[in-house]
Amino acid sequence: MAMNPNAETPAEVKQRCEQFRATFTQLKSEIAKVMVGQEEVVDSVLTALFAGGHVLLEGVPGLGKTLLVRTLATTLHLPFSRIQFTPDLMPSDVIGTNIINEDEHGRREFVFQRGPVFAQVVLADEINRATPKTQSAMLEAMQERSVTVGGTTHQLEEPFVVLATQNPIEQEGTYPLPEAQLDRFLLKVTVGYAQLDDLMVILDRTTGAETPAVSPILDGPAILEARRLVREVVVAPHVKQYAARLVLATHPEGEFAAGGSSGVTNRYIRCGASPRGAQALILASKVRALTEGRFHVSNDDLQAVAPACLRHRVLLNFEAEADRVDPDDIVREVLKLTPTQAIGMVNA
Predict the structure, then answer these.
(1) Which residue in 2, 96, 117, 151 has the most C-beta neighbors within 10 A?
(2) What is the pLDDT of residues 6-26, one digit of tens each?
(3) Exposed e or buried b for every residue in 92-117, given b needs 16+ CB within 10 A?
(4) Chain centre distance of CA 213
């Protein structure tokens, strides 16, 4: 089938959208056999999968972050690995290393021993427990989809997605992720506590005799095909400009700073979102549009995905900490204060 939507009939485009939506729903249903509630979290993880990005899951222990990633991996026909990050973990434990191999004739040579990052679904569990040196070993893999060891670059197989977890309240023995690495995550998702009804279901499922079984649904080629469809979703110029203005609204002393010279941006933000923030907004919005049965992005899509796209890209100053303002508060204010009307565009 031609990948150019302009060469397709409206019926064909609609069929592809419906197929994507059905697949998305099927994955959610399969994950829901194990994960109770947390629909927004599951939506965000699947959004990142189809947008081609990585996810940082933040929440206190016991909320099912690791379980969600393992369940997602079970629904996919992809190699899965789990890396338990600890203070003594070395970069070679993540990406691999060259070892000396001796053949039957006594000849010795260096052979690259691949590390666990050479899977396609990688769970980086408690990523903030490793030292910065080991954390940085993930940077090239996450951004370039490759690993360089001993001057040789090894390509990772696509699709490749990293799903990292971290505990926001435990500080002793942890190393906060540097801003450059946070920026590599398409989305940062906050995992909250279960509600009463959900907790009752969790107790039934986890303390009963039967264990829910999850079946594989998607393979690598199907995921890559879905990602190509996501890239084709239409973004009108005025919607694209709105995404750009949302990012620029987080820049202190900038022309579009939210609230003006004395507003929330200039008061609380030390450093705003990078262009990757705008890219994340557009890609995540494209996935949401498809799940809503549309082949075009709306302002509502941007507003819905903005918290997960921007909360880890907004660095707050001391005054924000003193006033107990968190990044989610800032993003909400940015959405409230940034007008949706296009600027300087005819018939926008």
Answers:
(1) 117
(2) 567 777 788 888 999 999 999
(3) ebbbbeeeeeeeeeeeeeeebeebbb
(4) 25
C-alpha–C-alpha distance, residues 188 and 186, integer Å: 7
Answer yes or no: is 8 within a domain.
no
Instruction: List the domain range (segments joined by +) for residue 318.
Output: 233-343
Q: Would 1 be classed as within a structural domain?
A: no
List pLDDT tens digits, range 265-292: 999 999 999 999 999 999 999 999 999 9
Q: What is the CATH number of the domain that holds 324?
A: 1.10.8.80
- Residue 345, judged by CB atoms within 10 A of its CB (0-12, 13-18, 19+), counts as exposed
- pLDDT for res 104: 74
Residues 294, 188 share a domain: no
Domain edge (last residue) among 225, 258, 281: 225
- Name the average pLDDT for the chain: 87
In eight-state DSSP terms, residue 73 is H
Number of domains in the chain: 2
Q: Look up the pTM and report it.
A: 0.89
Instruction: State residue 318's pLDDT score.
Output: 92
Distance, in Å, from the CA atom of 233 to the CA atom of 237, rounded to the nearest integer, reads 13
Residue 2 pLDDT greater than 70, yes or no: no
What are the distances in angstroms from CA 312 to CA 25, 43, 80, 194, 317? 27, 18, 26, 23, 14
Q: Which of 202, 159, 183 is nearest to 73 (CA)?
A: 159
Strand partners of residue 100: 110
Give the count of alpha carbons within 13 A of 264, CB side only: 20
Structure tokens at 255: 């022309």
Q: Is the pLDDT of residue 107 over 80?
A: no
**What pLDDT is stored for residue 1 in this prediction?**
38
Contact (CB, 8 A) for 49 and 290: no
**CA separation for the pair 323, 10 (Å, rounded):** 52
pLDDT digits (tens, 9 = 90+) for 223-264: 999 999 999 999 999 999 999 999 999 999 888 888 777 788
Distance of alpha carbon 269 from alpha carbon 316, whole angstroms: 4
Quick one: 258 and 151 in the same domain? no
222: how many CB neighbours lie within 10 A of its CB?
14
Contacts of 72 (CB under 8 A, 6+ apart): 27, 31, 45, 46, 49, 121, 163
